[in-house]
């Protein structure tokens, strides 16, 4: 039965085709441009497929390269790293286009790729367009100097130390500006990259023979043609969270109708309802990119509040544990002082007893009534001493019990703090920064 065999992604190769036009200030020309592209994780997209790219300039022998997908393992997800490093070596790149073109300085020339570039949600890959034409007018690109600093994506190694120093000098209030892309829509984001001033592919020697062959803060000028393959709805928690509130509201209403015997939908089993929703696109119930963005913002705000509350509780537990430790030490010091004063108190009692014995020997001739009164007084003093000893033992027991509870509370606080640190480490591993 088809209802039991729901697809997870659309069978259509491309649901939508989008042409990306970047700003063109006619700023610079040279041999090549390299820039990163990110597939945004906003809409329920299974992947996007970049089919072609368009550039202008003197052109000539052109090649288009894409960075190879980085190997992933369970312990390290490269797509979720804080920064993305693209090596400037041919072995780390895959060629997807090669052809010779006549000059086209004013109109974009479309380069239909030999194979599409696939990007999964959250994935970042770099595109490198280069011409071996022996002059500095091959490819038009733009200068991003007026928008610096905003790039935290590194190309190669050893050429971006100054960028790192500039980034360290920026305060946290500029993070939003640094994350601003060159171009973005609900599905992709294009960031600033590097211009190449060498006629050799991935060459490290510029056209004039000295200096650095790569120029930072340069931006792509042209067009991208890509298609989106949407993810299909399924009753899975990881899928449910990617669809909009109106889609989930439609699901809720269908389930309500299923519980009413007078509704024809009540005759349908769950599998049929799930199959119907599986065939519905994410925006068929009036969900829009703006609504999805609001949903994502609310989710991030909720996570931020939970994180702040967790940190506040962690700090409160640590302070409470410190107070309990101080109280325990103070009580232990007090009990030690009482224990140290014990021999002195015993010597005083012995001296007092000796004096009483001498007094009794001196008054052996007293009558029986005086002896009875004297004995009664001694018995009363001994009873008071016994009561004092019992109170002291009870206080020691209570102090010991308090110390045990203090130790338990301290251990609990430390365990909770360790759990929070582990959770923060996991979260930090899921953080992406541009």
Automatic annotation (TrEMBL):
It comes from the Eukaryota. Residues 330-340 have a biased composition (Polar residues). Residues 304-317 have a biased composition (Basic and acidic residues). Residues 157-180, 295-393 are annotated as: Disordered. Residues 161-175 have a biased composition (Low complexity). Residues 362-372, 381-393 have a biased composition (Acidic residues). This is Uncharacterized protein. It comes from Seminavis robusta.
């Amino acid at each position: 039965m088809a209802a039991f065999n729901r697809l997870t992604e659309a069978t259509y190769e491309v649901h939508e085709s989008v042409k990306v036009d970047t700003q063109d200030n006619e700023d610079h020309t040279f041999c090549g441009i390299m820039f990163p592209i990110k597939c945004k994780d906003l809409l329920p997209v299974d992947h996007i497929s970049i089919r072609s790219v368009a550039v202008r300039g003197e052109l000539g022998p052109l090649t288009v390269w894409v960075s190879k997908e980085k190997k992933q393992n369970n312990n390290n997800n490269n797509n979720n790293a804080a920064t993305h490093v693209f090596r400037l070596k041919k072995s780390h790149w895959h060629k997807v286009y090669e052809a010779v073109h006549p000059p086209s300085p004013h109109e974009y020339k479309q380069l239909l790729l030999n194979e599409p570039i696939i990007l999964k949600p959250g994935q970042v890959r770099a595109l490198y367009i280069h011409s071996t034409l022996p002059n500095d007018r091959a490819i038009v690109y733009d200068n991003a100097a007026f928008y610096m600093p905003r790039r935290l994506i590194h190309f190669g190694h050893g050429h971006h130390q100054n960028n790192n120093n500039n980034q360290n000098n920026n305060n946290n209030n500029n993070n939003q500006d640094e994350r601003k892309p060159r171009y973005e829509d609900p599905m992709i984001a294009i960031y600033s990259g590097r211009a190449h001033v060498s006629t050799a592919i991935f060459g490290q020697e510029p056209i004039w023979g000295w200096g650095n062959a790569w120029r930072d803060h340069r931006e792509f000028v042209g067009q991208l043609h890509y298609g989106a393959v949407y993810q299909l709805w399924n009753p899975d928690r990881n899928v449910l969270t990617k669809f909009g509130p109106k889609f989930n509201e439609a699901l809720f209403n269908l389930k309500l109708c299923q519980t009413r015997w007078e509704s024809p939908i009540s005759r349908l089993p769950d599998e049929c309802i799930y199959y119907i929703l599986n065939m519905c696109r994410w925006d068929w119930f009036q969900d829009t990119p703006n609504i999805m963005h609001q949903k994502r913002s609310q989710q991030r705000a909720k996570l931020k509040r939970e994180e702040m509350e967790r940190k506040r509780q962690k700090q409160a537990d640590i302070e409470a544990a410190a107070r309990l430790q101080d109280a325990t030490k103070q009580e232990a010091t007090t009990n030690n002082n009482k224990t140290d004063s014990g021999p002195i108190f015993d010597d005083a009692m012995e001296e007092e007893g000796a004096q009483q014995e001498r007094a009794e020997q001196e008054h052996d001739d007293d009558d029986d009534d005086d002896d009875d009164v004297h004995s009664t007084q001694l018995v009363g003093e001994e009873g008071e001493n016994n009561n004092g000893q019992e109170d002291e033992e009870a206080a020691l027991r209570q102090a010991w019990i308090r110390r045990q509870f203090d130790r338990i509370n301290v251990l609990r606080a430390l365990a909770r703090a360790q759990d929070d640190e582990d959770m923060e480490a996991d979260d930090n591993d899921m953080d992406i920064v541009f």
